[in-house]
Amino acid sequence: xxxxxxxxxxxxxxxxxxxxxxxxxxxxxxxxQLFWNxxxxxxxxxxxxxxxxxxxxxxxxxVPLYVVRTLLGDVDFNLTSTVVYSEPDRVxxxxxxxxxxxxxxxxxxxxxxxxxxxxDQGQPVVPVKGLTVETxxxxxLYT
Length: 143
Known about the structure:
The protein is α/β, with parallel strands linked by helices. The protein has helices at 5-17, 31-37, 44-57, 100-106, 137-140, and strands at 24-28, 42-43, 65-70, 73-76, 81-87, 90-95, 117-118, 124-129, 131-132.
């Protein structure tokens, strides 16, 4: 909803001025985002542009951590997750912190939710609606 770097800079600055520190900023996967972005997917390059702008012009305390909510838990955008595939209305993220053994240790009869699969490295890959890779594909979709 706030997909312009100057608007995000203003929001982060004003929040800090009243004592609010933005620790995390969900860039995908939240219920409102799933609804709103399903017909208007956000290109991941847009998120990189905003993050770069904030890091360039804001103090470190005004720069949030970018997070994606998935079926299996939250991951840091492009740090603990990697885009492995993109469709026009969703991306598929490999989740680095999670493995089958992790979920089985919590729940013995664990099974993957529908739409989740495991890649060659044993990492779960989950779909996230409302995000896409239309530009700068070589940055996100490296093999």
